[in-house]
Amino acid sequence: MKLATLGPPGTYSDVVATMYQQQPGVVFGARLVYYSHLQRCLQALPDEADYAVVPIENISEGFVPVVLDYLVSADLHIVSEHYQSIEFSACGAVTELSECKRLYVQFVASGQCRDFIDALGDVEILTTQSNSESLLLAAEYGQGAMAIVPNHLLADAAAETMPWRQANVHDYSHNATRFLLLAPGPAQVEDVIEDDGRARKTSLMVMNDNDRPGLLEQVLHCFSTRRLNLSSIVSRPTGQGFGQYHFFMDVEASLNNIAMQGALRALQQITRVKVLGCYG
Ligand SMILES: O=C(O)C(=O)C[C@]1(C(=O)O)C=C[C@@H](O)C=C1
After folding, report:
1. Which domains, from first to last, does the chain contain?
2. What EC number(s) does its UniProt record assign (predicted)?
């Protein structure tokens, strides 16, 4: 069994994939396969891997657009979620920060370390696809280069050669990212029929094929009348024109909950809905 995740090894995605691989569950004992960017991890399903671990949402940066957009059309479902605490360090081939000429930082990580990056002043910022790639590129560039890396990567051989090492450069001490374990195929309602009493969440994608006044209000009504709480609702452009959006929603209820089933039936009469998974 293969589990796709973002590489090179050392990313936070790798930390979470390793956690899944080592604990009893559907991917226990799976072999990790690394991909250089998030889109490739997702595309690995189903031909190159059986499961994938990707970040979906950060406490300050919000949702990761590339993952949401992929979920609109891909034949994938969510098996599980994991909240990972995220801590960043800066390291580089400099003896003081004023010597920094170039900073490598992953595209989502940059928004989580804004204060540190702003204080560097006028340096060249190169965004990367992963936090471990940032470290490798800074080490390769040498004198004057710095990287934002996960705290745990300060122990990596590449970081150990760097004279400047500063831990905890993230803006929020409680920084965290939510990760999803994804599998190919549609979510199976039967999978969750057995209610084990655990609190569950159902994720849905409300597809906007036919924009009209009041559509979102009607959608929300399906949940509010049944006293179902949404823990998130985010929109993504359909790409068809301004003002047209799909909606990604997390509902705090299991798919086998009677109220949730009623909401789903009501929603299906209003618009096209894709059930992304029921987990928790
Ligand atoms: O580069 C990594 O370490 C990742 O796992 C990716 C990622 C992300 O894209 O959100 C994961 C967690 C952090 O929020 C920053 C980066």
Report:
1. 2-85+176-183 (3.40.190.10), 88-166 (3.40.190.10), 190-279 (3.30.70.260)
2. 4.2.1.51
